[in-house]
Amino acid sequence: MDMKKRIHLELRNRTPSDVKELVLDNCRSNEGKIEGLTDEFEELEFLSTINVGLTTVAHLPKLNKLKKLELSDNRISGGLEVLAEKCPNLTHLNLSGNKIKDLSTIEPLKELGTLKSLDLFNCEVTNLNEYRDNVFKLLPQLTYLDGYDKDDKEAPDSDAEVYAEGLDDDEDDEDDVDEEEYDDDTAPGDEEEEEGEEDDEENEEEEEEELSGEEEEDDDLNDREVDDEDDEGDF
Length: 235
Fold this sequence. Notes:
This protein has about 240 residues and is α/β, with parallel strands linked by helices. The chain has a domain at about 5-145: Ribonuclease Inhibitor (Leucine-rich repeat, LRR (right-handed beta-alpha superhelix)), CATH 3.80.10. The chain is about 45% helix and about 5% strand. It has six helices and six strands, in the order αβββαβαβαβαα. Strands 1-2-3-4-5-6 form a six-stranded parallel β-sheet, with helices on one face. β3 (about 70), α2 and β4 (about 90-95) form a beta-alpha-beta unit. It starts with a helix and ends with a helix. The model is unreliable at about 160-170 and about 175-190 (pLDDT under 50).
């Protein structure tokens, strides 16, 4: 599917100005250019064009509100100077898997004052000596390079955090179910205690019955003795 058609489908009867996120991954670009995007996408904040065969970003429209741009797994080798003009408020840029070989190619990114995260995985530039130190010096506004900051602390992954929260919610639900089950059907330990108490009560009742039975027998014996004494008195 070509990029223009994909954009039309992604709109889903919306106007371009209503769109904040646009994912065009794995569609076909025409001659390595971005096509179908216009200045009308004025509210766009996230654009993903992974593996679409791009060789240039020169045809990007003006996207003042764009914050995250995914360009990984394309064939871009330069021309990044247009990004400061087209996407002045960019905070996250992913260029992983492109044909970026030296630091001079990414030097124009220093004009992106808001850029905080840059990914260059699987680009030849990552093989240069002191690559990380030199990129942080070249782009002092960066906080994260390839997912890690200057102190090699990993960047928080928003997707992962959501997933973890989802797991926590599931665990909470399971805990609630367990609690309900324990409320409805008493926990095993409590059952044993209750059974023990019931046994004790039954034993006590049996003992009381035996005692009452013995007392009745004693009363019968006493009555008989009294009757016998009365009989002897009559004689």
